[in-house]
Amino acid sequence: MLIQMSLRAPNGQSRIQIEDDSPLSALVELIKTKTELTNFSLKYGYPLKSLDISPALQDKPIKELNLRGETIVVASVDPSPPAPALQPASAEPKPKPFTPKGIEPDETSLQWPERGGYMVLRVMPDDNSCMFTAFGGAIGLDNPSRTLRNQVADYILSHPNEYNQAILGEDPQRYTTKMRRMDTWGGAIELSILSDIYNLEISSIDVKSLRVDRFGEGKSTRVIILYSGIHYDRIAFCMDLSYPVEVDVTKWSTDDDEVLEKARQLAQQLQRLHYYTDTTDFVIKCEICNWIGQGTREAVKHEKETGHNQFGEMQITD
Fold this sequence. Notes:
The chain is α+β, with helices and mostly antiparallel strands. It has helices spanning 24-35, 130-138, 145-158, 165-168, 172-179, 188-198, 257-272, 295-306, and strands at residues 2-9, 12-19, 40-44, 49-51, 71-76, 109-112, 117-122, 201-206, 212-215, 221-227, 232-238, 252-253, 283-286, 292-294, 311-313. It folds into 3 domains: 2-76, Ubiquitin-like (UB roll) (Roll); 105-272, Cathepsin B, Chain A (Alpha-Beta Complex), CATH 3.90.70; 283-313, no CATH class. The radius of gyration is 22 Å and the shape is elongated.
């Protein structure tokens, strides 16, 4: 007897049907054909639960899985192992939640009917590691900050000609010691290095100017992050806003210009809501000594003079 199911995959939605006495392996092959994916994970039901497609279960009849009428969510899985990483000595502290000021949840997504889903803003914790968390989540790392910081620091020290004092603005040993600390911000240098380590193009969209900075141009796969002046978030694609972030699509071919354009449209939507900090004249406060200054230039000067690098934006009210 034929059973029907719906598929939600990165390339859109479709319906499939298959004989209920077919083995699970036949369903897997059918999904490969429909989605043009080779490596993927499957989830179904509400709340979503994983469908085990491990080799040991490939002969199991589909009718025993109770999938009739279900919607199966297909998420691409990168088969390549992650780059070598130093393991943290202790578990990462749970990041504090961060809610963007003045932005409602329904304003952080942009419907994309042609692909059957939404481009969404995944807001990162405001914990001085937002850039590492934004990128790390895009490549599937849990609590990635310490791992990525160590990888960046090791890369700098192993490439002394490329990352010298003239490029870093200070002695490489001192720079990397600071970068390993959880309270140090990451920026363009770190994005460029992570692009090389993971062989990915990292497209960073600036909310204020809508400029796209591409780190690692010429690579075949892209991830997208959003820069709002003093904070980084991640941009992802999801097929339903109720789905958990674990089934987000966060990697795309660099040939897929439509994805980058749709991400810019989402950034433009956020720009209209003033979801950015103007770093040329915003008022900041040092969280260590309560010094108050204006703009990025003064913050950099204060950091060089004192070694303090924890800043917060001050809200000025009449």
